[in-house]
UniProtKB/TrEMBL annotation:
Entry superkingdom: Eukaryota
PROSITE patterns: G_PROTEIN_RECEP_F1_1 (PS00237), G_PROTEIN_RECEP_F1_2 (PS50262)
A GO molecular function held by the record: olfactory receptor activity
Keyword list, A-Z: Cell membrane, G-protein coupled receptor, Membrane, Olfaction, Receptor, Sensory transduction, Transducer, Transmembrane, Transmembrane helix
Subcellular location: Cell membrane
Alphabetical list of InterPro entries matching this protein: GPCR_Rhodpsn (IPR000276), GPCR_Rhodpsn_7TM (IPR017452), Olfact_rcpt (IPR000725), Olfactory_GPCR (IPR050516)
Pfam families per record: 7tm_4
Transmembrane regions: 12-38, 59-79, 91-114, 135-158, 200-226, 238-261, 273-292
Entry annotated with the keyword Disulfide bond: no
Full protein name: Olfactory receptor
Amino acid sequence: MEGLNWTRVSQFHLLGIAAHPFLQPVIFVLFLLVYVFTLVGNLSTVSAVISDEKLHTPMYFFLGNLSLLDVFFSSVTVPKMLAGLVGEEKLISFVGCFTQLYFFHFLGSTEALLLSSMSYDRYVAICKPLRYHVLMGKLACAQLTLTCWLVGFLYSLAETVLISLQPFCKKNMVTHFYCDIKPLLKLSCKDTHLYERLAAFIFALVGVSSFLLILTSYIFIGFHLLSIKSRQERRKAFSTCTAHLTVVFLYLGTAMFTFLGPTTENSLEMDRLSAIMVTVFTPALNPLIYTLRNKDVKKALRNLYFRASVT
């Protein structure tokens, strides 16, 4: 009978970035510059991969998809967060909140799965170089990428439906700068321990599975590198993996720390800090990580900007 007193929430109030009013303009300018760099850097990478025939290989095909995902992923949360830093109202509608939740997890899980596909690509390139063009042909790459997007779509749909069925009747303050599972469950009228476990289990199917696939690929790569007698050849082979490993630790490590941890007041505060890293800074760092030591991408970008300046 308690349910008769429930009042359905029609909109949520986002907490935003908790900071001193004096610091909010500074944070706004900093995050805006990072967001613009994210868009320019990742879209430039996508354009370079498309325009340069030398980059029409599996590794760069996956890199182009990763850059495109970073553009969308960052755009799901950062513009709303920036608006909250300069405006007093931080409201978001019920539909808008769950749309944001859906696309955040859709794009985030797809990126995690894509990173596992990229680790498989590195495994084949290093451990089975003679069969690389057979195992990683255009059709195989397209199928792997399509599978990543499809699984991400289904995973996010399951998470969003699970959370949207909750009755929200408490305060509508979401203790985050975007709509996410843990802070939304805190607003439910029902006991959410089961739903938290289900949400963590569904995430584990994607996030932890992706991490285990990546770990397995690099275990095989490690054993293969140990069998190579030449130190120079080992260093050359491993150098093709450093950018991918860096992104994996930055992205998947932070994501698993955020979504698999318990829901407490302290954990929600840590989640906000982790989310800033994942949604603001990691998408901006990816173009730097993949281009600073990659001569082919840097050359393609120079040619791209040269053609753009000439026209």
